[in-house]
Amino acid sequence: MLVGFSLGGEEGLLPIRETPLLILVGLTGVGKSTLVEALGLPRLPDRRELVDLYVLPRYGAKPPIPREVRFQLTRRFREEFPGGVAEVLARGFVEPRFPLLFDGLRGEAEVAYALEHLPKALFVVLQAREATRLKRLLSRQDAFDRVELRPEERAELEALAEGVLSPEELEEALALAPWEEVLAKLKIVAEEKRNYDPLGPLRLLENHPQALILDTERLSLSEEVEAVKGFLRQLGL
Questions:
Q1: Which of 8, 41, 85, 165 is most buried, by the most CB atoms less than 10 A from its CB?
Q2: Cβ count within 10 A of residue 19
Q3: Secondary-structure class of domain 5-129+197-234 per CATH
Q4: Where are the beta strands (DSSP E) in the chain?
Q5: Given pLDDT bands bounded at 50, 70 and 90, which one contains residue 150?
Q6: In 47-178, where does DSSP find H-type helix?
Q7: Quick one: pLDDT at residue 115?
Q8: In the predicted model, is pLDDT for residue 146 greater than 60?
Q9: Are the C-beta atoms of residues 192 and 173 closer than 8 Å to each other?
Q10: pTM summary value
Q11: Where exactly are the structural domains of the chain?
Q12: In this predicted model, which residue has the larger pLDDT, 106 or 167?
């Protein structure tokens, strides 16, 4: 169930700072959307929707736009507002449904801002290797993952993969899809890694009483759901 969200204090809405939240943290392809659906909790508009509504218009852009352009604009937004999407979220007002699920935050700065400004928030950090995230992107066929490609970009593939995938992992990805598609999705994984240190949230949330860490490669979906439910029960929610 999607719950109303506004940046204005409309009647019947509560400041989100006063609301228990369950925030998913992780990069594209770690399994956030799958977990959202499996949990079935009342949820806020997700990260993509908040960026579409409150970030892109600030720079005269509107969806659909290539992912690399979104990265450029969200990076520009973070230069002005270091808390990124967490700053948009923290300024919001929501319907009183508890706990509310938000998908999701990325990077250390966004999590740090949420820890400071959303005192009732709980965090579920989802982790997966870059190679696994790439495979999931190749299988999901989401139009949102579109990027601009040039015919001559084949030569850039190995350079882009350096530091992100091993040669063996790259060959495995190329066995799953045409090189143009692998390149398009690899651009997303590589650009996210440049923009958001995957280990940043762990530095803040590992062993934190308000956080649960899930390895989505090791756990099945049902195990993830049970872990989240147990986490909420432990905290009385």
A1: 85
A2: 22
A3: alpha beta
A4: 5-6, 14-15, 21-25, 93-94, 100-105, 121-127, 211-215
A5: low
A6: 47-50, 67-80, 85-90, 107-117, 130-140, 157-161, 167-174
A7: 97
A8: no
A9: no
A10: 0.86
A11: 5-129+197-234
A12: 106
